[in-house]
């Protein structure tokens, strides 16, 4: 156990040395390549303005998203009406999509419980 701790400690030391050596140049390079996204002057007021713009822009996009949702639901209704013409591939894709939704639900439940599994005596 102590040897694993020493290995972990040496790996952490190597990683911190790497960050100390190359971190500044990476940071400067990152800012330089993305300078078109940086707002000048970088003040608290500018950050507050941008956050409000983002919030209200998202709020304004809700009607369009709602309309898109209705179009998608109408498409699903049409598929359900014509389900006798449904191909095996389409049914398989729908089943996989449903399975994926269920898996994300289960993962969210596990994360919400603090990564604990309930119902098992361990």
Give a description of the structure.
Helices cover 77% and strands 0% of the residues. The protein is mainly α and 122 residues long. The model has no long low-confidence stretch (mean pLDDT 88). Keywords: ATP synthesis, CF(0), Hydrogen ion transport, Ion transport, Membrane, Mitochondrion, Transport. One of its GO terms (molecular function) is proton transmembrane transporter activity.
Topology:
Blueprint: H1 2-33, H2 44-60, H3 62-81, H4 88-112
Write a concise synopsis of the structure shown.
By secondary structure, the chain is an all-alpha fold. It has helices spanning 2-33, 44-60, 62-81, 88-112.
What is the rounded distance between the termini? 23 Å
pLDDT < 50 stretches: none
Total DSSP helices: 4
- Please compute the radius of gyration using only Cα atoms: 25 Å
Helix content: over 70%
Give the beta-strand count: 0
Beta-strand percent range: under 5%
Question: What is the N-to-C order of secondary-structure elements (H for helix, E for strand)?
Answer: HHHH
Q: Quick one: overall form?
A: flat
Defining key terms:
122 residues, mainly alpha, 4 helices, ATP_synth_F0_gsu_mt, ion transport
């Amino acid at each position: 156990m102590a040897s694993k701790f020493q290995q972990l400690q040496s790996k952490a030391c190597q990683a911190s040395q790497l960050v100390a050596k190359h971190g500044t140049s990476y940071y400067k390079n990152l800012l330089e390549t993305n300078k078109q996204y940086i707002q000048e002057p970088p003040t608290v007021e500018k950050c507050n303005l941008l956050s409000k713009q983002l919030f209200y822009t998202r709020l304004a996009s809700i009607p369009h998203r709602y309309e898109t949702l209705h179009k998608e639901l109408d498409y699903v209704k049409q598929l359900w009406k014509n389900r006798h013409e449904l191909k095996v591939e389409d049914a398989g894709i729908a089943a996989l999509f449903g399975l994926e939704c269920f898996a994300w639900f289960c993962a969210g439940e596990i994360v919400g419980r603090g990564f604990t599994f309930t119902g098992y005596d361990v």
